[in-house]
Amino acid sequence: SSNGFFFLTPFGTRFNAELTRDGKPVTKPIFRIGCAVPPKNGEPPHAPPREYLQNLIDAYGPIDQLLWSTRFRTHAAIADRTFTRLGAAIFLVGDAAHIHSPAGGQGMNLAIRDAIFLGEAVTKHIQALAENPDVDDTILEEFAEARHARALEIIKYTKTLLTLAGLPYDTYAWWMPCSKASVRDLVLNILGRFEFVQSRIAWGLSGLGRR
């Protein structure tokens, strides 16, 4: 749409009975609809209210009835410290340490990598402690600093993804009769044809490029 992205994903007929069990029988396909309001004043895009969604459905979507809707606002936050000691060592990983938008599944990927590298750091610390009972927490502190830096990178990455997804289709200016979203679509259409670009995108989304 001219106000952001708008897509339909069919659920399939097997979901009909579950989603409409308290209502009238539905014989037509049920779709999941995702759309976003473009960012304003530097804020990330967010899911629209029901009225806005219904207007989009009426204008662009072959939808007869809106059964259920919700909205969410994306935001990001990160803990100042992810490691401390209160007698025992205490670590924050996953959503306890950092939160951001669900773009690209990056939160889950980062949480899994946090847990994997936490295991390695704790193992190294235990081995060092066995050799020297007076060893300090350098290994654990270095792990916490490294994961904190990675979390900041992911937050920046997901904000970039949302910004690109929420570019509007409105004409940019009278002297430039095209929109930011149109330029984005054209660039993605051209570059997306190359296998090395596809591989690079997949590598970035997987998190393997920033372990």
Automatic annotation (TrEMBL):
<keyword id="KW-0274">FAD</keyword>
<protein>
    <recommendedName>
        <fullName>FAD-binding domain-containing protein</fullName>
    </recommendedName>
</protein>
<dbReference type="InterPro" id="IPR036188">
    <property type="entry name" value="FAD/NAD-bd_sf"/>
</dbReference>
<dbReference type="InterPro" id="IPR050641">
    <property type="entry name" value="RIFMO-like"/>
</dbReference>
<keyword id="KW-0285">Flavoprotein</keyword>
<feature type="domain" description="FAD-binding">
    <location>
        <begin position="53"/>
        <end position="154"/>
    </location>
</feature>
<keyword id="KW-0560">Oxidoreductase</keyword>
<dbReference type="GO" id="GO:0071949">
    <property type="term" value="F:FAD binding"/>
</dbReference>
<dbReference type="InterPro" id="IPR002938">
    <property type="entry name" value="FAD-bd"/>
</dbReference>
<dbReference type="Pfam" id="PF01494">
    <property type="entry name" value="FAD_binding_3"/>
</dbReference>
<dbReference type="GO" id="GO:0016709">
    <property type="term" value="F:oxidoreductase activity, acting on paired donors, with incorporation or reduction of molecular oxygen, NAD(P)H as one donor, and incorporation of one atom of oxygen"/>
</dbReference>
